[in-house]
Specification:
single chain, alpha/beta, Carbamate kinase, 8-stranded mixed sheet, 10 strands
Length: 213
């Protein structure tokens, strides 16, 4: 079983407990579920720096796109420095346990996503899950899920998300989910046990976005 997990850059202070919890549960590769977890790093402050430079110096969309993806790799190395997590730059190298992807090489080779700030690590994680023909991916962020009238919504359709506009995800993700009939599970990484439940497909505290309708 393979699971793609996007680890948000907003969790810079909380990324280590998330990775440690996942590795404690699945990291040996001999767990009875035999799960291969591929972590897609967010961009965080590293991508923010690219965006700021892009605006200040009028950097073009193509250059900004690849610089932002390289910012994801900076975040990956930040996490590796603190956790020792295994990293890979290939979608072919995914052993059982927990591995983090350096996405630049794969995205350069395929280059199927728009070069726009609408496409960030969220859509890249969904795209990665699509490469494995997975129906869903887990988005780990710093909020409990999508709120409507101050209440976290447990289930939403992608059309409902689109009507709400941009929430806690990048602008391109809802349309990508709808076009590719995929789902997204949003959980708060400040509660690592929720991430484990999402990986295992258990009932979650978070928002399940259904796009395969």
């Amino acid at each position: 079983m393979r699971v793609v997990v996007k680890l948000g850059g907003s969790l810079m202070e909380d990324a280590v407990p998330v990775i440690r919890a996942l590795r404690a549960r699945f990291g040996t590769g001999i767990d009875k579920e035999c799960i291969s977890i591929l972590i897609i790093p967010g961009g965080g402050i590293f991508a923010d720096a690219v965006r700021s430079a892009s605006e200040k110096y009028r950097i073009g969309d193509d250059a900004s796109h690849w610089m932002a993806i390289l910012a994801m790799e900076q975040y990956a190395y930040f996490i590796k420095d603190r956790t020792g997590i295994s990293i890979t730059d290939s979608l072919e190298d995914n052993p059982f346990g927990v591995t983090m992807l350096l996405p630049y090489r794969t995205l350069k080779e395929k280059d199927e996503l728009a070069h726009s700030w609408d496409v960030t690590a969220d859509t890249i994680a969904a795209w990665t899950a699509k490469q494995f023909a997975l129906p869903s991916f887990v988005k780990v962020t710093d909020v409990d899920g999508i709120y409507a009238e101050d209440v976290v919504q447990q289930f939403m359709t992608v059309d409902e998300v689109l009507k709400m506009g941009i929430t806690c995800m990048d602008a391109a993700l809802p349309a990508f989910l709808k076009e590719n009939h995929m789902n997204c599970i949003i959980v708060n990484g400040r509660h690592p046990e929720r991430v484990i439940d999402a990986v295992l497909g258990k009932d979650i505290v978070g928002t399940y976005i259904k796009g395969n309708i």
